[in-house]
Amino acid sequence: MVTAVNDPNLIEITDFAAPELDVYARLTENQLVNRADPANALFIGESPLVIGRALDAGCEPVSFLMERKHALHKGRPLLERCGPVPVFVAEEAVLCQLTGFHLTRGMLCALRRPPLSRPEAVCRNSRRVAVLENVMNPTNLGAIFRSAAALGVDGVLLTAQGSDPLYRRALRVSMGNVFLVPWAYLPQEGDWTAFLRGMGFKTAALALREDALDIGDPRLGREEKLAIVLGTEGDGLAPQTIARCDYTVRIPMSHGVDSLNVAAASAVAFYQLAATV
């Protein structure tokens, strides 16, 4: 059961079982994606910054869940942008009990997923793109998007087996930068390195190989269009992917350390290969 309060859009939570709250309390990330009905697929934005960037990108809000005090104060500018959208409110302790976690900055928003971009559109006017092969951890994915936005990457391309950039944790870690960098999924059929070559890119695979180029090699910086290819946590890039790329690139290490986490490696690579272009 939910009860309207002073503002007609504000709805006080009185019953955790209310179906209107399923999107926040009971649906999994995969259920939100709703592949059987893409027009009604959703994602959850957390915090005013992330929600604001989603709205800036044209995403349509469906409802809000927030601490009551934020609906009257900190969240008011967001709500004023959204028209007559339901806003479910309660005290912080009630929201933590409902969702099972503490809400970052005290608010969530359910939004409709935007249409997917085509990889051709992401590549067409880009000089530097990041390619993420099977990056599974949403925290890593969000950190990579944040670095991509900060360090001059024009677009991000993903394989379908990796994590979803619109998962709540990925969005939160990226600080909403998922909406600032164009992204798309690579073609699932055939050799996607051939697709990139067809779009005019040379490909640079980050891999731990003794015969790899140093990431500071000037040949990389001279490439007009370069795709920076990063692999999954633990195993890195598939051997066939490395073999198909134009360059294999290594970040020099010290003190016997053999590698960096993929998110940290992406920041180094983007700074060296994209930020100075």
Can you summarize this structure?
By secondary structure, the chain is an alpha/beta fold. Helix content is 34%, strand content 21%.
Write the SSE topology.
Layout: E1 2-4, E2 10-13, H1 22-25, H2 29-33, E3 42-46, H3 48-56, E4 61-67, H4 68-72, H5 76-82, E5 87-90, H6 92-99, E6 107-112, H7 119-124, E7 128-132, H8 138-150, E8 155-158, H9 168-174, E9 183-185, H10 192-198, E10 202-206, E11 213-214, H11 218-222, E12 226-230, H12 239-244, E13 247-250, H13 262-273
Parallel strand pairs: 2-5, 4-5, 7-8, 7-12, 8-9, 10-12, 10-13, 11-13
Antiparallel strand pairs: 1-2, 3-6, 4-6
Helix pairs in contact: 8-9, 8-13
What report would you give on this structure?
The protein has a seven-stranded parallel beta sheet, with helices on both faces. Strands 1-2-5-4-6-3 form a six-stranded mixed beta sheet. Helix 9 (about 170-175) links the parallel strand 8 (about 155-160) and strand 9. The longest helix is centred in the middle third of the chain and has 13 residues, at about 140-150. The protein is elongated, with a radius of gyration of 21 Å. It has helices spanning about 20-25, 30-35, 50-55, 70, 75-80, 90-100, 120-125, 140-150, 170-175, 190-200, 220, 240-245, 260-275, and strands at about 1-5, 10-15, 40-45, 60-65, 85-90, 105-110, 130, 155-160, 185, 200-205, 215, 225-230, 245-250. The protein is about 35% helix and about 20% strand. With about 280 residues, the chain is α/β, with parallel strands linked by helices. Helix 8 (about 140-150) packs parallel to helix 9 and helix 8 (about 140-150) packs parallel to helix 13 (about 260-275).
